[in-house]
Amino acid sequence: MSAPDPTREKILTLVRQAVGDPGADFRDEDQFLAIRHLLKASGPLLVVERTGWGKSLVYFIAAIMLRSARAASGPALLISPLLALMRNQIEAAARMGVVAETINS
Exposed, middle or buried by CB within 10 Å (0-12, 13-18, 19+), for 59? Predict the structure, then answer.
């Protein structure tokens, strides 16, 4: 049996915070792999998945982890065309301790 991956465990903790469920898991392995890709700066990433898959979590969690690793700060911009999705994203960000705002018309 291999040792637990601390990065994976930290990411999973953030997923659970975001969804408000201590038993939550990744949607599928691709959700974890997308976050890991961003953390390793492995080049461009395009995530095309159904609504509710957790694409926003990929971006939020990668931003949190990168800032933590680099002791960095500053804005991260997530563009979403749907008002209901924006509200959901702001709520999920708040559960993870991310200060987030929305601008819409």
Answer: buried
